[in-house]
Amino acid sequence: MKSIRIGAGAGFSGDRIEPAVELAQQGELGWLVFECLAERTIALAQKARLQDAEAGFDPLLEERMEAVLAVCSARRIRIVSNMGAANPLAAARKTCEIARRLGIRGLRVAAVAGDDVLRLIKETLPRASGGELAQTDPGRLVSANAYLGAEAMLGALDAGADVVLTGRVADPSMFVAILAHEFGWTITDWERLGRATVVGHLLECAGQLTGGYFADPGWDEVPNLAHLGFPIAEVGEDGAAVLSKVEGSGGLINAATCKQQLLYEVQDPAAYVTPDVVADFSQVRFEQIVADRVRVSGGGGRARPESLKVSIGVRDGFIGEGQISYAGAGALGRARLAEAILRERLQEHSLRDLRFDLIGVNSVTAGIVPDGMREPAEVRLRAVGRADARKAAARIAREVEALYTNGPAGGGGVSQCVRETIGIVSTCIPRSAAASQWTIEVS
Amino acid sequence: MQLREIAHGRAGDKGDIVTLSVIARRLEDFPLLERQVTAERVAAHFAAITGGAVRRFVLPDLGALNFVLQRRQGESVTRSLALDAHGKCLSSVLLTLEIEGAVRGERD
Q1: Chain A, window 346-405: residues with a beta carbon less than 8 angstroms from a chain B beta carbon
Q2: What pTM value is reported for the model?
Q3: Inter-axis angle of helices A190-203 and A255-262, to 10 degrees?
Q4: Which residue of A has its CA nearest to B48?
Q5: Could you give all domains of chain A from N- to C-terminal order, each with its CATH number?
Q6: Tell me: domain B3-74+85-94, CATH 3.30.70, correct?
Q7: In principle, which of A76, A163, A279, A425 could form an S-S bond with A272, CB 3.0–4.6 Å?
């Protein structure tokens, strides 16, 4: 019986590259998928493209492609990735250029576009009613990208592209597209698309399935985490799969790691909505076959939604931040004095929000866990706030630095930063409003 | 005992919500989770950061509960001033809940 072997080569834009090389070399793969696009990444990429028409794709695309293209080409492993970000066409051209540099001729690299709906959103914004979007100033919009589904990639896959680069597509859809292409599933085979979505969801964060983000010493031990291997799914025609990783690689796959990843970022497990299907994760079963091999079955699905989700990037001013450490006797008291001083000094600087954390004491758990009475050996005060102007935000960091000679005794190790923030607002558009297109570049 | 002794879990995020899974280490402990780790208790535990009710989804086959927390207005991954803007640390904070009843023997 035919089965398809897919490896997950990246789970986020900054992910490690070595495990993808290991997968390509030793995973006996048919396909390698790189998921590299977070909600905000595409807005940042859009800003880069405005500065330079050939920019706007994933900043690590070049490094990743250089690491895997030769071995993938030699072993006929096809690649699917959303590293196209805000500029899939430029990403395809860059990939061809790298292929030529590596001596690979005739590599077919597809660019899938159509997710960019900024113009449409700008036109319809004045008519938007209710919600956060209606209150948004159109001049602050940076990007608007619809989540495209598997269908958008099928044309390029059926045309035989060796590498498919997309902008915003739903993460699991990259896996669904590969499986629908390989098995010839129709795009309304909800049951199978649902199961393929289970596989895609499990693999899309790469190492988070194989023991990454799982270890808790004394309770959940993960062997050789330093050399964490990334996952492989062997998927059958019915959409059921066996999950594994390269033999001898670090990490582990068992029912516990699989359950954590199955529910990761999921709201209603019986209705996980993607552009392809409303997938049902609630009946999924995991069965350990041998060490580091788990069978997954039982997923389902029903008809896909009629609308597509759109992520809209909105300029949201600047965040300024400064940190300073206090240690030894009375550390906490001096940090609190520093906070009080900053509150007073920053009062008049047109900040929209201001927040203070005592890192090591209450930066995550304020109001949830009592601060605790024991004096910490050290504590780090963090001051952070938001302003419309960069200069006002920078004032926060300056005031923290000034605590050296103008604050309590013994402060040290100041760090500071100012960054522009792009908030993300979501909306929906009719499916017909985002038409996808693809083109193929050849090296 | 702490919830951690009988369960593990992972936090996730989507826009202005945080999701938290609580998964029984052993299936036979799941009824204990289902009885004691209620939506109301989780809402009370995280009252300082949530802006409303907590939804709970029960997954008996997986021996798991899945919680969806609405964050306060204006708090989202991309806008939050919090050090952990995603809320990723919250899964371990949830595992500090006190659970009554079972006396744990040997661990798995």
Answers
A1: 353, 355, 357, 359, 363-369, 382, 384-386
A2: 0.95
A3: 110
A4: A367
A5: 3-126+146-304 (no CATH), 312-426 (3.30.70.1150)
A6: yes
A7: A279
